[in-house]
Amino acid sequence: MKHRFGQNWGIAARLLAIVVLPASLMFTAVVVTLYLAAQRDVRRDVASRGQLVATALAQSSQYGLMSGNAAYLRTTLRHLLEADPSIACIDIADVKGVPLVSDCQAARPREVSVFEVPVRVESLPDLDVFDALPSQNKVMRTVGQVRVTMSPAPIFAAKQRALLVAFALVLAAAVASCLIGLRLARRLRDTLGSVMAALRDVRQGRFDVQLATNHEGELGELQRTIVQMAGTLDASRHDLEQQVAKRTRQLQEAVDLARQADADKRRLIVRSNALVEEERRRIALDLHDHLGAALISVRLQASALVARARACGDAEMQGDAARIAATAQSIYATTRDIVKRLRPEVIDTLGLAGAVEELVRHADQVHPVARFTFQVDPGFPDVRGELAMPAYRVAQEALNNIAKHSDATLTSVTLSALPETGHLRMVIQDNGRGFDTRSPRSTGIGLIGMRERVAAVGGELRITSAPEQGTTVCVTLPLPASH
């Protein structure tokens, strides 16, 4: 990932860069410009001076060349070299290019410029003494050549002091600009630092910010805006806190009412279940005591009638009496089943463990394919009567659902005690086709009845299932205090 230059800089670093970088760039640009301008001026000066020296020397060396006075020429060259250090060498040659006089400075410069000028004199033509002298047809002839080698180093060295002074002035201006910029940047940083501190306080929920709002321009407007924003946020927070407190009280009241309603509902369910069980017990007793006794009497009378008809040899009466006896026996057996479903007597005689084991054994006998197993912990308490009824009804409903809907081949029922928490646990697990617990099937009447019955006595019902992964029903119920 690419990072832009200065992306993570703070305010102080950014302000310092804003102050120093432009001044540094300006100082560099001015110094380079002055240096290049000085070099250009030196080269131009060397060019004009070299051409001028070569031309002047060409004119002054005419006599020496014509007369062959080499001493005069050497003296002239030495005076020129001593007078102008920028002249590196001077060479004077005749018309054939043969050097006549040459002189150079002691130090040999690296960078030089060469200027060559021919030495010409006026040629005197053959004249008739009687002819007038022509005034415009002068003929110049070359008698030699002057070669001047110039070096810009001495001229540039002479200008170095002026350049250093200029550089010092520019540097002083740059330093002064940086100091002024740093002072202004420090004031700006202090202002922005106070603004950032105020924004941090606002972000952390402290809205009583204090900022100097007497500045002019954008910074003053920014400070005043932050102060106004903090005040507005403080007022909004106060209003929100009041609304939250009010809604919290309302929600707490609603929760209390819901809890009260839930407690009332549970008490009502418990009372309703108790009344239903009591009514079932009464109906079961009535069926057992009255209808059962009447059916037994009818069966006995029919059996006696069969014996008398057999003694009299009346086959037709004997058959009718036998059918009456069989019908009475069938009705009596059906009545016994109804009595067991209304009020399972095994709850009172065998307790919860025995009653659930009887349910499992009966389901295993009547189901043609599935197998049902039962397991109980050795230390499981003896729970009887109304205390065992919720767990028994849940087991009854769960086994009925497995037989009707699950297509399971194996079902296990386990009873265990949790003495450390004072609860008992019943786990019913099958390997059937399962179902989605979020589907409408998970809110059927039977499952709702199971949940309500367990919740009414302060228990917990958890149903875990998934398609093609079976179903597990886990019931946790509080044990009575005596257990």
Task: Give a brief description.
The protein is an alpha+beta fold.
Architecture overview:
- Among the domains are: 11-121 and 140-171, Beta-Lactamase, CATH 3.30.450; 350-483, Heat Shock Protein 90 (2-Layer Sandwich), CATH 3.30.565.
- It is rod-shaped and about 200 Å long.
- The strands form two sheets. The chain has a five-stranded mixed sheet, covered by helices on one side. It has a four-stranded antiparallel sheet with strand order 2-1-4-3.
- The chain has helices at residues 11-60, 62-67, 70-83, 153-203, 217-312, 315-342, 345-366, 389-406, 445-456; strands at 87-94, 99-104, 113-123, 139-150, 371-376, 410-418, 423-430, 460-465, 471-478.
- Helix content is 61%, strand content 15%.
- It starts with 10 loop residues before the first helix and ends in a 5-residue tail after the last strand.
- Helix 5 packs antiparallel against helix 6 (315-342).
- It is α+β, with helices and mostly antiparallel strands and 483 residues long.
Q: What are the main properties of this structure?
A:
Beta-Lactamase; alpha+beta; 61% helix; 4-stranded antiparallel β-sheet; rod-shaped; 5-stranded mixed β-sheet; Heat Shock Protein 90; 483 residues
Q: Can you tell me the residue ranges where pLDDT is under 50 for at least 5 consecutive residues?
A: 127-133
CATH 2nd-level architecture of the domain at 11-121 and 140-171: 2-Layer Sandwich
Query: Roughly what percent helix?
Result: 55-70%
CATH third-level topology of the domain at 11-121 and 140-171: Beta-Lactamase
Neighbour order of strands in the largest sheet = 5-6-7-9-8
Q: Please report which band the strand proportion falls in: under 5%, 5-15%, 15-25%, 25-35%, 35-45% or over 45%.
A: 15-25%
- SSE arrangement, N to C: HHHEEEEHHHHEHEEHEE
Overall geometry: rod-shaped
Q: How many extended strands?
A: 9
Q: What's the tally of helices?
A: 9
- Quote the distance from N terminus to C terminus: 69 Å
Largest sheet: 5 strands, mixed
Q: Please, what is the average pLDDT?
A: 79
Query: Radius of gyration from the CA trace?
Result: 63 Å
Query: What is the CATH class name of the domain at 11-121 and 140-171?
Result: Alpha Beta
Classification by helices and strands? alpha+beta
